[in-house]
Each structure stands twice: as structure tokens, then as C-alpha cells.
Amino acid sequence: xxxxxxxxxxxxxxxxxxxxxxxxxxxxxxxxxxxxxxxxxxxxxxxxxxxxxxxxxxxxxxxxxxxxxxxxxxxxxxxxxxxxxxxxxxxxxxxxxxxxxxxxx
Length: 105
Prior knowledge:
By secondary structure, this protein is mainly alpha-helical. It has helices at 2-23, 27-54, 60-63; strands spanning 78-81, 84-87, 97-98, 103-104. It is built from three helices and four strands; from the N terminus they run αααββββ. The strands form two sheets. A two-stranded antiparallel sheet has the order 1-2. Strands 3-4 form a two-stranded antiparallel ribbon. A hairpin with a 2-residue loop joins strand 1 and strand 2 (84-87).
């Protein structure tokens, strides 16, 4: 559907300048319609990029069960839910998650 609109626009923009030049119209009309075609081409290119970004898969490390992201020292690394403690992220090498303050230390 969108490809058809784009094709029609490009054909229109390709033929229109010759019609206007034959009729003696100014160059302003030609440049306006060419700018519109370029605008539609840019929109289509951006839509394709957005579709590709939306469809990207997670890296294999993130697919693993039990995988947690890394966090910085001093950042909250756990959360308490009642009697249970849930791990939010993995502390950097040389530090560990202090469950009393729930931060990497």
C-alpha cells in the first residue's frame, strides 16, 4: 500500500517537471515537487530502519535463564519482597551485594 503511494509519487514527480517546462511554468514548482518526493523517500527509509530496530533479537547472553545485567559499585543490586530477596543485577568484580543495605560494596 505505502509502496504503491511512493511509486505513484515518484512517477508523478518525474513526469510533472516535463509538463511544467512544456507549459512554461517556473522552476519553483519543479523544485517543490522534487522536494516532496525526496521527503517521502526519507520517510520510507526511516520507517525501514525503525522496523529493523524493532525486530532485532536479544544477544544470546540475555536469552539465558537466570541472566542478570551488571551494575556499578554503590548501585542497588537487590530488592526485598517480604521475606524474599530478589537480585536486580550482578555486582562488578571485586564487590558483592550487601543484602543488609541492598547495594554493591
